[in-house]
Every structure is written in C-alpha cells, then in structure tokens.
C-alpha cells in the first residue's frame, strides 16, 4: 500500500516516513501544497496523511480540491488546531478522520489501519468480470455502463457466480442460495428459469456457461 505524507516540517515528515516504513507501508513525502497536488495528480494512494498548515497553502484547501475532483482517497488530517470548530470544518470538507498534534504513534497507526480497512471494503463492493459490473452495496448491475434491472433472485445468483468465478456451482448450491427451503427445491427447475432470464437481461453470449450434468459457471473470457 502506498501512502502520501503531506507535511512541510522536514523532521516531522521524516519521522512519519520512518514510522510507516517500520510498519511495512510504502510512502511518498510532499513537503508543500504544490508538491502534494503533483503527487496526487500522478499517483494513486491508499491514504493521505495531511497537515493543515503548509508553507505555500493549506491542507484544508487541498482536501476540498481533492473531493471536488472526485478523488475519494481516504484522508487523515494531522493538525495542532484542536478546537471543535476546526475539526468540524475538516470533516465537513471531506476528511475521513482528524488527529490533533501531538499524537501517539500507537493511536496514529490504529487510525491508519481503520481507514485502510474502510478503503479496502469500499473498493471490494464492486465486482467486474468482462463487461459486467456488480455493486454489492448499491445492489446494482451494469453491462457496458448500462444499468440492468434484475429481480432479487437474479441479482443474488449473479453475485454468487461473480464471487466464485473459477468454480462450477451445482443447481442445488444455486437453489440453496436463493431459497432456504431445501426440501422443496431439490428437484425444482427454478434455477434454470432464473438463469434463462438472467442471460436474456445481460445479453452477453456465453457469459454464464452450462456445465452438463453439474451446473453453471461464469465464462471469464466472454
């Protein structure tokens, strides 16, 4: 994971770099507002550690510019400004967390871990295979950026397929996933009906393959 440290005090920035390196994080240092903008424009970061007061600008302005540009990288503001109003300003501007200086390294690392987990979870809410993108959180499916309307059962089946893209799933496994009444569905063709409708709505040839005598699987090459 690559982090960006935005801090105009050289000693503080190098101490942060040493701390993060010890925790196996890869980090860049921007010593100014201008340099930070250049780094953010050129690179993707898992997290930005942002000082409020910079020599040629301020972290709050930089944060607002990031969010206005729809850069959703988690940001942790580090500042000596401890007033409640200041913290509210930072959070309203789009910061994910705020830590007052001086701070404990143990607490800083804990806050970093929380934000990195949050960022990772948000990224994994999207699953994409070929032209199909499924958003687990928003419960939406897109084919080539076109929203596809699926029933709850169709969405659940597609989600299961896309989470198990290398695995052939039996009809019974698929039935069990969409209907907990196992006894009544053992010999039902309900899965075949849902998959037929799902294929029609996705309209992608051979996206869901029928494995004769076993079940179905996603065709990653489609």
Question: Could you describe the 3D structure shown?
Answer:
The protein starts with a strand and ends with a strand. Helix 6 (152-163) crosses helix 9 (190-202). The chain has helices at residues 10-22, 33-42, 59-68, 84-92, 105-123, 152-163, 171-178, 182-185, 190-202, and strands at residues 2-6, 26-30, 47-51, 53-54, 57-58, 75-79, 97-100, 126-129, 132-135, 140-143, 146-148, 169-170, 208-211, 215-218. It is elongated, with a radius of gyration of 24 Å. A hairpin with a 2-residue loop joins strand 4 (53-54) and strand 5 (57-58). The strands form 4 sheets. It has a 5-stranded parallel β-sheet, sandwiched between helices. With 222 residues, the protein is an alpha/beta fold. It folds into 2 domains: 2-123, Rossmann fold (3-Layer(aba) Sandwich); 126-218, Orthogonal Bundle (Arc Repressor Mutant, subunit A). Residues 181-187 have low confidence and may be disordered.
Separation of the first and last Cα atoms: 31 Å
- Oligomer state of the chains in this structure: single chain
- Assigned CATH superfamily of the largest domain: Response regulator
CATH class of the largest domain: Alpha Beta
Strand percentage lies at 15-25%
Could you say which overall geometry the principal axes of the C-alpha atoms support? Answer: elongated
**Strand/helix succession:** EHEHEEEHEHEHEEEEHEHHHEE
Topology:
Elements: E1 2-6, H1 10-22, E2 26-30, H2 33-42, E3 47-51, E4 53-54, E5 57-58, H3 59-68, E6 75-79, H4 84-92, E7 97-100, H5 105-123, E8 126-129, E9 132-135, E10 140-143, E11 146-148, H6 152-163, E12 169-170, H7 171-178, H8 182-185, H9 190-202, E13 208-211, E14 215-218
Parallel strand pairs: 1-2, 1-3, 3-6, 6-7
Antiparallel strand pairs: 4-5, 8-9, 9-10, 10-11, 12-14, 13-14
């Amino acid at each position: 994971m690559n982090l960006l440290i935005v801090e105009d005090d050289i000693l503080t920035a190098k101490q942060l770099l040493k701390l993060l390196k010890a925790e196996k994080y890869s980090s860049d240092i921007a010593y100014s507002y201008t340099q930070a903008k250049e780094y953010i424009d050129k690179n993707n970061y898992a997290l930005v550690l942002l000082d409020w007061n910079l020599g040629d600008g301020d972290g709050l302005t930089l944060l607002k510019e990031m969010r206005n540009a729809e850069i959703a990288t988690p940001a942790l503001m580090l500042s000596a400004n401890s007033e409640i109003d200041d913290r509210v300003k930072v959070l309203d501007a789009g910061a994910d967390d705020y830590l007052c200086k001086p701070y404990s390294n143990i607490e800083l690392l804990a806050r970093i871990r929380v934000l990195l987990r949050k960022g990772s979870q948000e990224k994994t809410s999207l699953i994409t295979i070929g032209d199909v993108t499924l958003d687990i959180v928003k419960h939406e499916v897109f084919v080539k950026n076109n929203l596809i309307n699926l029933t709850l059962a169709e969405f659940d089946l597609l989600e299961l397929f896309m989470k198990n893209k290398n695995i052939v799933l039996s009809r019974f496994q698929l039935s069990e996933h969409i209907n907990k009444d196992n006894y009544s569905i053992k010999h039902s063709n309900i899965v075949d009906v849902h998959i037929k409708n799902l294929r029609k709505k996705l309209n992608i040839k051979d996206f869901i393959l029928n494995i004769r005598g076993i079940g179905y699987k996603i065709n990653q090459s489609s």
